[in-house]
Design a protein that fits this description.
- By secondary structure, the chain is of the alpha+beta class.
- The protein is 19% helix and 29% strand.
- The chain has helices at 61-70, 81-89, 137-150, 167-171, and strands at 12-13, 52-55, 95-99, 105-114, 117-128, 157-162, 176-186, 189-197.
- A hairpin with a 5-residue loop joins strand 3 and strand 4 (105-114).
- Helix 1 packs antiparallel against helix 2 (81-89).
- The longest helix is centred in the last third of the chain and has 14 residues, at 137-150.
Length: 205
């Protein structure tokens, strides 16, 4: 299972980040309600104003599965679908849905604390709708989760299990590969373990 094998906060309005330099991302990690939320004009960039990150709800199950399915088989193997279902049915930590101003789901993702290390946060099942890659949404979803993990003074590191298709996205944001298992998730889907050291101020003398 990806992330954890593999406390809720209120929803808020994200700041305008239309000038986000990290646009060309591949935001499906290891961790829509039918029709794609993409604009009918493929040349129109995603408007990042008024995006909303809210807490996951029990009735978001079908929404999450639609997001997962939109990334299969490119970023997730079909055999991982049950792992994702097991995860959302028994969340180990905060999980969120990224919505546009009309309430349409653009992505989801969360995090938890590593079972054997309270200083390590673990990114869990982050994904953006398969039709909305390279719109900067993966960067937003990652940044918001990292900020929440870093807000805990006991957190020193963040880990993730991802694939060869997404590891470059995380490497560009400071994650370092620690291990790679060929076909670790499924045939043709490698398991890439990565870690990010959180920047902390030096202790006062």
């Amino acid at each position: 299972m990806r992330h954890l094998r593999r406390s809720c906060r209120p929803a808020f309005i994200l700041p305008r980040i239309s000038d986000d330099p990290m646009r060309a991302d591949r935001p499906a990690e290891r961790g829509g309600t039918g029709s794609s939320p993409r604009s009918t004009d493929a040349t129109t960039p995603m408007d990042h104003r008024n995006l909303r990150l809210r807490d996951w709800r029990a009735d978001d199950r079908n929404l999450g599965l639609a997001l997962f399915d939109s990334n299969t088989p490119r970023f997730f193997a079909a055999s991982e679908r049950q792992d994702f279902i097991d995860f959302i049915d028994d969340l180990p930590g905060p999980y969120f849905v990224l919505e546009d101003a009309d309430g349409r789901a653009l992505g989801c993702g969360g995090y938890a604390t590593a079972r054997n290390d309270a200083s390590k946060g673990v990114l869990c099942w982050g994904m953006v709708h398969g039709d909305l890659h390279r719109e900067g949404l993966g960067s937003i979803l990652l940044a918001q989760r990292l900020a929440r993990i870093a807000a805990d003074p006991s957190s020193r590191f963040v880990s993730i299990e991802t694939s060869q298709h997404s590891c470059g996205f995380f490497a560009r944001r400071g994650f370092v590969e620690t291990r790679r298992t060929i076909d670790g998730f499924a045939a043709g889907m490698d398991l890439v373990e990565m870690t990010l050291a959180l920047a902390r101020p030096a202790p006062a003398l």
